[in-house]
């Protein structure tokens, strides 16, 4: 935490400055209303900079300024009564800047201190063969709390840069022996190690052709002699504020890249960008993802209707949000809560799509546990009770056929009694797996409703197809060829089934439908078992 001491006899001014500077991260703001109070504070605390008025109640004749100069404490003067010539004299070399006390001055003050906070102790390379000019520029830069390294020509500068990799700004004269400013610019900006360095060139004349050449070869800014200290200070300050912003953006982007699952695609869904978090959760590297279509992540269990809805939404320039199960490279899966939106050109056309995703795999796994039968790994009665009414409502709205197949394993009690409960559990597991394999559409569902009672909810186009499907399931169960010597229906495990099928608007509510299926199941048992009775 860097400490700044604000010295002013006006409480209004102190409050305004505190309010203006408080957003600066890492800055501790301390106040004093008099010179005496400021001296007591500075005897105990080391300050980063002092911001002071010229005239204080106990120091009307610039005694505060003289004290700060004697102690060589970096100082910013914030006053409505500024004597520029006096402040630029060698007597007050500790003064960083003077700021007029008005609204614009307050905003400039914030930028100045923000820039000083970031620039302090940063190294700048000054390339200048004239000792007097080097000393002049060095003093201006050191007032900004920078560390200045001096080289006498371009070749010497390159050697220094090769050793010192923490230099972020180079200020070079154009007219130099051995290697002049233009040649130095060309070499510096074509070396991949130094391309990010900011380069200011000092020139003696404002010749357009020279300026064009320097800018084209990579100079970031130019200063024309004679150098105005305020101009150089403001240019350097703005450079470091820009570097600070770039650094903050880079740090933020790095955090986003590591922790936010994001990607961008072209209009066809081919991946053109992917975050590191996206790579980690999917198991792919960026090289493996870039250029590939997002379909490589599609989990087979996700219904086509979801992706149709997604594409219909984003291609109409709207934002889509929903939960998606994706397939990992190793065959595993993960769930995300996704937000997908189109990227638009300036004229409003779609040029691609971008997505942000939040990992909800743990949440979905907990949900799966709560709706899954622990033994058979298919849906449980609780999930049936929650989802079946919704299925009926959706089918009523779309005027679709609903099929509910209720079934019991024939003579399961006798199987348990004679083969043991462990063998009975194995039957239940194989029975459920057979039901799950029989499902043909994404919306079809299998449930263990209790004990040896199971249910299927599935979609068909006609009632005739519904009965054909039910009998195929019945055959598949018997074809498991699980021996059951104590069954009257077959020498293998079989099931009796009651099928209710029809348009949802004609079937009534869930309870009525379940009761009807149960009665049909009872009829199938009474008729000899291992058969389907339908409505």
Summarize this structure as a short list of keywords or feature phrases.
535 residues; alpha/beta; 5-stranded parallel beta sheet; 23% strand
Q: Give average pLDDT, whole number.
A: 93
How far apart lie the N and C ends? 79 Å
Give start-end ranges of low-pLDDT stretches: none
Number of helices: 20
Strand order of the largest sheet: 2-1-3-4-5
Number of strands: 20
What is the 3D shape? elongated
Beta-strand content: 15-25%
Classify the helix fraction into a percent range.
40-55%
Largest sheet: 5 strands, parallel
Q: What structural category do the secondary elements indicate?
A: alpha/beta
| Rg estimate, integer Å | 39 Å
Blueprint of the fold:
Layout (H helix, E strand, L loop, with lengths): L1 E6 L3 H11 L5 E6 L2 H10 L4 E4 L10 H9 L3 E5 L4 H4 L7 E6 L2 H17 L3 E5 L3 H12 L4 E5 L2 H10 L5 E5 L7 H10 L7 E6 L4 H9 L4 E4 L4 H31 L1 E5 L5 E4 L1 H7 L3 H4 L14 H11 L5 E8 L5 E12 L5 E10 L1 H11 L9 H18 L2 E9 L2 H8 L1 H18 L6 E6 L2 E6 L4 H16 L16 E9 H4 L2 H17 L5 E3 L1
Parallel strand pairs: 1-2, 1-3, 3-4, 4-5, 6-7, 6-8, 8-9, 9-10, 19-20
Antiparallel strand pairs: 11-12, 11-15, 13-14, 14-15, 16-18, 16-19, 17-18
């Amino acid at each position: 935490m860097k400490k700044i001491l604000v010295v002013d006899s006006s409480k209004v001014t102190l409050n305004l400055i505190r309010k203006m500077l408080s957003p600066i991260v890492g800055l501790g703001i301390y106040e004093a209303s008099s010179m005496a109070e400021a001296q007591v504070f500075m005897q105990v605390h080391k300050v980063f900079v002092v911001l002071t008025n010229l005239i204080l109640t106990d120091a009307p004749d610039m005694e505060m300024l003289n004290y700060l100069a004697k102690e060589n404490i970096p100082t910013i003067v914030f006053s409505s009564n500024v004597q520029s010539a006096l402040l630029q004299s060698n007597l007050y070399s500790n003064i960083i800047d003077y700021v007029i006390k008005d609204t614009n001055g307050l905003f400039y003050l914030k930028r100045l201190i923000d820039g000083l906070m970031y620039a302090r102790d940063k190294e700048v390379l000054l390339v200048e063969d004239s000792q007097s000019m080097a000393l002049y520029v060095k003093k201006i830069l050191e007032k900004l709390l920078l560390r200045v390294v001096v080289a006498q020509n371009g070749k010497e500068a390159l050697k220094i840069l090769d050793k010192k990799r923490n230099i972020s700004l180079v200020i070079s004269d154009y007219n130099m022996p051995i290697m002049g400013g233009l040649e130095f610019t060309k070499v510096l900006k074509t070396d991949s190690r130094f391309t990010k360095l900011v380069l200011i060139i000092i020139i003696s004349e404002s010749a357009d052709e020279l300026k064009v050449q320097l800018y084209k070869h990579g100079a970031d800014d130019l200063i024309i002699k004679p150098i105005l200290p305020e101009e150089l200070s403001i240019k350097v300050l703005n450079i470091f504020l820009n570097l600070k912003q770039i650094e903050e953006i880079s740090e933020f982007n790095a955090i986003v890249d590591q922790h936010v699952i994001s990607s961008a695609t072209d209009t066809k869904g081919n991946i053109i960008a992917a975050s590191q978090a996206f790579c980690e959760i999917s198991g792919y590297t960026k090289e493996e993802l870039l250029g590939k279509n997002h379909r490589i992540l599609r989990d087979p269990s996700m219904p086509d209707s979801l992706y149709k809805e997604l594409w219909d939404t984003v291609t109409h320039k709207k934002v889509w949000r929903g939960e998606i199960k994706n397939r990992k490279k190793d065959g595993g899966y993960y769930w995300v809560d996704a937000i997908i939106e189109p990227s638009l050109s300036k004229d409003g056309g779609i040029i691609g799509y971008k997505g942000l995703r939040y990992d909800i795999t743990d949440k979905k796994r907990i949900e799966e546990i709560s709706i899954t039968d622990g033994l058979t790994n298919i849906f449980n009665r609780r999930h049936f009770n929650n989802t079946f009414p919704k299925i009926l409502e959706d089918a009523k709205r779309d005027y679709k056929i609903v099929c509910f197949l209720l079934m019991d394993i024939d003579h399961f009690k006798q199987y348990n009694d004679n083969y043991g409960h462990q063998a009975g559990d194995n039957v239940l597991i194989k029975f459920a797996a057979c039901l799950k394999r029989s499902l043909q559409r994404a919306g079809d569902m299998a449930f263990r409703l209790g004990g040896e009672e199971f249910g299927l909810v599935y979609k068909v186009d006609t009632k005739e197809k519904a009965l054909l499907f039910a009998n195929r399931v019945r055959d598949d169960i018997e074809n498991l060829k699980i021996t059951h010597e104590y069954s009257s229906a077959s020498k293998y495990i079989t099931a009796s089934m009651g099928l209710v099928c029809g348009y949802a608007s004609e079937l009534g509510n869930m309870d009525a439908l379940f009761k009807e299926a149960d009665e049909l199941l009872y009829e199938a048992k009474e008729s000899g078992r291992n058969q389907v009775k339908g409505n």
